[in-house]
Structures are given as structure tokens and as C-alpha cells.
Known about the structure:
61% of the residues lie in helices and 5% in strands. It has helices at residues 13-16, 22-29, 39-50, 54-71, 74-87, 104-116, 118-129, 145-150, 153-168, and strands at 6-9, 34-37. Strands 1-2 form a two-stranded parallel ribbon. Helix 5 packs across helix 7 (118-129). The chain is elongated and about 70 Å long. The relative contact order is 0.10.
Amino acid sequence: MEQCCGQSYDGAGNMAGKYVGASTLIQRQFGKAIYVHCMNHRLNLCVANTCSLRIIQSMMTTVRKLSEFFSNSPKKQNRLTKKVPILLPNCNHSKLIHVCRTRWIARIDGLDRVVELFEPILETLRNIHLNKNDEGVVGMGDWESKKQGRCRGPAKCYNIFFYYHTCYC
């Protein structure tokens, strides 16, 4: 610790507190160990503050719900995975990325993946909603009606389509 010339934390009181935070206690013993607020956490706070717009919050909630919808069910994930090479033959990804609720910076990866896989996601949701089997025959799939109801989300997914065209077109 004698050679320590800096320390960086997320700004929480127990770490960065002016009187009894870890950084203050360390700096009292090792004067060169200057505290600097972690820039990644600062950036995350700035982005979170900027993203307080209702339309952005709604979009990111939809992205998170889509991620959970597919990642919480191997059966749904499998259907999505099968659709990707059919609809996007040059795509290297077939799964959505889990979206962290607290780290806004990490959410961009989840959003990018939803944009990338938009067509297969929408088609998979339609197939579940219409209870299509693997051959595409309506009403012949093996989806329970309760799960089909949760897929009325294609209507909600058109919100993503709106955001997609607003942000990327």
C-alpha cells in the first residue's frame, strides 16, 4: 500500500464517504492514495439520468421483457434460434442478451441484439401467438393457451419497430 497512488470506487457512502468512507480511511494512512470517483460509474449515472424520458424507459422495459420471455424458456429460445438462420442467414447471433436493470451502459448491447434479431423475434412471437407448429400450420402448435396470451406481445413489439425506425432509420 505504500506505493498506492490512487483509488477509485462507485461513490457509495461506505466507500467514498468524506469522513468514514473506505477511501478516506485509506488516504489517512497512505496520503498518496487519492480518491477519484470511478468514471464508468459516473458515465452510467449520466446515461441513467439522460434516459429518464418515458419513451426510452418504455423501450428498454420492452427489450428487457423480450429478453426474459425468451431466456426463461428453452422451448421459446429454441424456436427463436431456428428462425434466425431462415430469416437472417448471415447473422452470427441467435440469442438475446440479458438486460441488466441497474447498468444503463450494459443495456445498449441488449437493445442492439433486439434490433439485429428483430425479424426472427417478431416471427417467433407471431408463431407462438397463432399456435403454429414447425411447419407453420396455424392452430397445430404445442403452445398452451396461457403462453399464447403472453404473446399478444407482437402488438407490443410493434413499439420496438417504431423505436427502431426512429433511432436507426
